[in-house]
Design a protein that fits this description.
CATH class of the largest domain: Mainly Alpha
Helix content: 55-70%
Strand content: 5-15%
CATH topology of the largest domain: Arc Repressor Mutant, subunit A
Radius of gyration: 21 Å
Largest sheet: 2 strands, antiparallel
Number of strands: 2
Distance between the termini: 46 Å
CATH architecture of the largest domain: Orthogonal Bundle
Order of helices and strands: HHHHEEHH
Strand order of the largest sheet: 1-2
Structural class: mainly alpha
CATH superfamily of the largest domain: Winged helix-like DNA-binding domain superfamily/Winged helix DNA-binding domain
Number of domains: 3
Shape: elongated
């Protein structure tokens, strides 16, 4: 290996480190700004749900009626957390407790009609926010960003499978 080759390798290693430095910083900014924009931007408060509620309602829409334990496992959180997060959704009429057809003593959690309506409203508001934020992006850029963000989320899940939330 020549001195030039060593220098090029060092330059590439330094450039790679700079990418990771920028990436970790941009990821931290993204997490903070995403929540602030969602809560104070295009999405008005009546069409807002906190992240946990939004993810729970989405899961119930996809899976149908499910028990607390199964829901907790699918979301990568413990049952007591699901119980605590679901309680205000039940009180607000967004989630129903329905009898388990396989075990009359148990109940399942199901998305109510009101919950479905609210989920659709919030989803539409979030999509409107995305349309506004990415209005000056090309279709190709939006597709590329979506693909890369999906891949990034899949990498995070593979790194820590207990996190759940397949998507």
């Amino acid at each position: 290996m020549t001195t030039d080759d060593s220098g090029e390798q060092a330059d590439r290693a330094e450039a790679a480190e700079q990418v990771y430095e920028r990436l970790q910083y941009q990821t931290a900014l993204f997490a903070r700004r995403a929540e602030r924009v969602r809560m104070g931007g295009v999405v008005d408060q009546q069409n807002s749900l906190d992240r946990a509620a939004y993810l729970l309602l989405n899961r119930l829409e996809r899976e149908g009626p499910v028990g607390v334990k199964a829901l907790a496992q699918a979301m990568g959180i413990d049952s007591s957390t699901v119980t605590r997060q679901v309680a205000p959704l039940v009180e607000g009429g967004l989630v129903d407790r329905v009898p388990n057809p396989n075990d009359g003593r148990a109940v399942l959690l199901a998305l109510s009609g009101l919950g479905r309506e609210r989920l659709y409203q919030v989803r539409e508001a979030r999509q409107a926010l995305m349309r506004e934020l990415l209005a000056d992006w090309t279709e190709e850029e939006r597709e590329q960003f979506t693909s890369l963000l999906t891949r990034f989320n899949q990498s995070m899940r593979a790194f820590n499978p207990s996190v759940g939330l397949e998507g």
